Amino acid sequence: MQNMEQKKRQLEDSQDALTEELAKLQAHEKKHEMSGEEKEKEDIGRHDGDGDIKKTLEEQLENHGEAHHKQLSRLRDQIEE
User: Fold this and answer.
1) CB of 23 within 8 A of CB of 60?
2) Dihedral sign for Cα atoms in the order 62, 19, 54, 42
3) d(CA 68, CA 10)
4) Cβ count within 10 A of residue 75
5) Is 46 helix (H, G, I), strand (E, B) or coil?
6) Distance separating alpha carbons of residues 8 and 57, to the nearest angstrom
7) How high is the pLDDT of residue 11?
8) Rounded distance, CA 46 to CA 39, Å?
9) Phi, psi at 5, each rounded to 5°
10) Could you give the C-alpha distances from 27 to 8, 36, 52, 57, 59, in angstroms and in order?
11) Residues 45-77: pLDDT tens digits?
12) Rounded to whole angstroms, what are the CA distances from 56 to 3, 14, 24, 61, 70?
């Protein structure tokens, strides 16, 4: 049973790392797409775009943290049963 729990934790850690890497790549991709569009805009527009990327990344990380917390709660409940 402990071995299964350890494997489950390892898989969750791997999933967390991959989810964070995906969020970073998505933010980078969005920034790259926006930079192509913003070459025609003034510097003010570019700064607004950076703020949007930061906000999107923060939202993704927050959602990831909430999902991780729920997952840990479910695991604790299973262990207690």
Assistant:
1) yes
2) negative
3) 13
4) 14
5) helix
6) 27
7) 92
8) 8
9) -65, -40
10) 28, 14, 10, 6, 11
11) 555 556 677 788 888 888 887 887 788 888 778
12) 37, 22, 10, 9, 21
